[in-house]
């Protein structure tokens, strides 16, 4: 069994029926998945490594099989397998959208491969034209220096820079002579640039399109040549740029890199637009923990699954279990979002900070009276005082399919009596033994009501107990 398989087995035990809204379950999950972020994956075979990467990609060119072959060849040759990820410092902030391919780079690093993180201090002066409807304003050297000053710090939660290189492409691009550039450009078909839909649209609409933008992808490709990249990562919007990298490496008589593109993560507003600082629907890597947690708690329910896929170390099997529980109603969407928010805060700031952010959010937004909830089922003490708790929950309230199911909820610490008075809540955790007790006996354990409201909570379901 691989180290990853052992971790998945542990997480599956927690997910199998636990109350995902309970603090103990969230803490256990965070302990397991936080450890997974530093898990050594070098015991996976090249084929297993390629499959793990492929599961989070849009494009893997030429194929997962070729990626596995290249990993195996590097092992046999005793050389580093080089992973390239580049980013232009056109803004001072890196956000979770940028983190999607960086997380894949982190996994490849833990597989034993060498990550080269390239800061495009030269290419930023051109500006990546991908997806743009107009020419990007030129950046000065001062703009670039200011923007890139904290880049390494921002991505350090994902990349171990003691085992990775941080390079600036000015190291080699500032030394490229005009004859060298012309020699490469002479062998690149213009059609490779003009096949881009964004370029064709701008030309058709009479928008500006500079020669510099046309050759941006060629200049970016020279980074791959300089470090002899085996693999390059980027968002799916970078596909044409990355294909140019393969072409220029071929022109330079190098083996073309494997191209891996990842999905563009949808912004927190759930409108379908990609995460972007300009749209305000982003989560910055430098944001305070409470802000990160709160922004992720605010996302629409339909984003929870893709965010788990792209921003955490959860496997497909684990996500399928949670998705099934949501469909069955045995897990609440808000509970799963709390897990997601905790996962991301833990990745950026550590599990203890994530626990504090969760507690702060709960104190500020989640603590409300059950009396504010309309249409709660009501159990009359006069009518059901002698009924056993298990029979009441499973038959009268229909909150569980059987008394055995009620016992399991109790075992998982999901069975509670909640007493509300003067805006304060007092929670009594009920044990498995309580399931066989009469309701009246169970209620007597919390003391006299004295005008307080009493609620029975079974997992995520709630009923009011009426004296």
Characteristic key phrases:
alpha/beta; 12% strand; 11 strands; single chain; 467 residues
Please characterize this protein's 3D structure.
The protein has 467 residues and is an alpha/beta fold. It contains 24 helices and eleven strands. The protein has helices at residues 3-15, 23-36, 46-54, 64-77, 96-110, 123-126, 141-148, 151-155, 170-173, 178-185, 191-194, 197-204, 211-214, 216-227, 239-251, 289-297, 304-311, 316-328, 333-349, 351-366, 381-384, 389-396, 403-411, 439-444; strands spanning 59-61, 82-87, 114-119, 165-168, 231-235, 258-262, 378-380, 415-421, 424-429, 453-458, 461-466. The radius of gyration is 27 Å and the shape is elongated.
Distance between the termini: 56 Å
Strand content bin: 5-15%
Task: Output the radius of gyration.
Answer: 27 Å
Q: Return the structural class.
A: alpha/beta
**Share of helix among residues?**
40-55%
Summarize, please.
The protein is of the alpha/beta class.
């Amino acid at each position: 069994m691989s180290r990853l398989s052992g971790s998945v087995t542990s997480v599956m035990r927690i997910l199998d029926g636990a109350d995902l809204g309970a603090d103990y379950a969230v803490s256990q999950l965070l302990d397991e998945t936080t450890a997974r972020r530093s898990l050594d994956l070098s015991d996976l075979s090249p084929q297993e490594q390629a499959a793990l990467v492929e599961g989070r990609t849009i494009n893997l060119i030429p194929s997962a099989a070729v990626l596995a072959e290249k990993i195996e060849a590097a092992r046999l040759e005793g050389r580093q397998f080089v992973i390239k990820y580049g980013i232009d410092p056109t803004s001072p902030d890196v956000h979770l959208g940028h983190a999607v391919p960086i997380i894949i780079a982190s996994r490849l690093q833990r597989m034993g491969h060498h990550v080269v993180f390239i800061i495009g201090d030269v290419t930023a002066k051109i500006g990546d034209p991908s997806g743009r409807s107009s020419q990007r304003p030129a950046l000065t050297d001062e703009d670039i220096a200011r923007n890139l000053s904290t880049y390494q710090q921002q991505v350090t939660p994902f990349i171990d820079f003691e085992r990775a290189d941080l390079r600036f492409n000015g190291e080699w691009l500032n030394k490229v002579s005009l004859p060298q550039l012309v020699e490469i450009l002479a062998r690149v078909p213009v059609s490779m640039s003009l096949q881009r839909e964004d370029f064709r649209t701008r030309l058709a609409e009479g928008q500006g399109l500079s020669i510099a933008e046309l050759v941006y992808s060629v200049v970016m490709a020279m980074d791959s040549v300089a470090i002899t990249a085996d693999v390059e990562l980027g968002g799916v919007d970078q596909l044409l740029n990355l294909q140019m990298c393969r072409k220029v490496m071929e022109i330079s008589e190098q083996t073309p890199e494997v191209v891996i593109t990842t999905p563009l993560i949808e912004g927190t507003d759930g409108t379908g637009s990609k995460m972007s600082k300009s749209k305000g629907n982003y989560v910055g890597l430098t944001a305070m923990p409470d802000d990160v947690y709160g922004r992720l708690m605010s996302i629409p329910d339909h984003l929870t699954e893709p965010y788990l896929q792209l921003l955490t170390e959860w496997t497909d099997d684990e996500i399928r279990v949670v998705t099934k529980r949501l469909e069955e109603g045995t897990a609440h969407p808000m509970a799963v979002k709390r897990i997601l928010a905790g996962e991301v805060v833990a990745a950026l700031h550590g599990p203890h900070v994530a626990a504090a952010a969760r507690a702060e959010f709960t104190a500020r937004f989640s603590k409300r009276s059950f009396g504010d909830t309309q249409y709660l089922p009501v159990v009359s003490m006069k009518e059901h005082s002698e009924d056993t708790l298990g029979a009441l929950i499973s038959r009268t309230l229909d909150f569980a399919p059987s008394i055995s199911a009620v016992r399991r909820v109790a075992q998982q610490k999901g069975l509670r009596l909640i007493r509300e008075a003067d805006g304060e809540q007092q929670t009594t955790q009920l044990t498995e033994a309580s399931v066989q007790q009469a309701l009246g006996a169970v209620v007597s354990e919390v003391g006299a009501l004295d005008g307080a409201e009493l609620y029975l909570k079974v997992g995520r379901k709630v009923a009011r107990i009426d004296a």
